[in-house]
Write the structure tokens for this entry.
Amino acid sequence: MRTRPCSAMLIAAFLTITPALASADDAPVYPQPPKPDFSSMNFLIGTWSCSTRSARRPAAVPSTDTYIIDPTGYYLVYESKSDAVPWAPFAIDEKFMITWDPEIKQWGSVNTSNIGDYGLAMSKGWQDGKLVWHPVNNTPELDIQSSSDFTITKVSDTKMTNESSFTTKSGKTVGVTGSCTKSS
């Protein structure tokens, strides 16, 4: 019986891989990373009634924000939902996955939305009652050239304020402020 070249290559490949598979038992087991310590963020868990106002808009936009720890224990999931307004005639649903990066010792937040937004921000954590998020990807969008840090101030366990700004492509800086009150 003649061996086809294709079959011979498969047999050779199997014989080459088999010793590697046998030695896999000697490889170290990858340890499960420790879960983040969310104790500094526990007051966030629940539902918040929020209001955010851009200085270039006539009124604030209300939103309902919720925070939960995901079932794995590795993420604080933050979701913000707002209804349509005249200058944005569609509902917006943003989701943020927040976790601790033990390698660089910073909090990381990855966000997405139902309108194609996405982002990555980093924070060193709460300092003097403030949590400052630094945007890592300052991708220009619409008429926005860049965004500042986003600073959250903890007023109490049931009240927060926030502030940020962005610069338009024409060079104008626009302030954004907000406040949230815990509703449950």
About this structure: The two ends are 77 Å apart (CA to CA). Residues 30 and 142 are 44 Å apart (CA to CA). The first strand starts at residue 46 and ends at 54. The helical segments are 5-23.
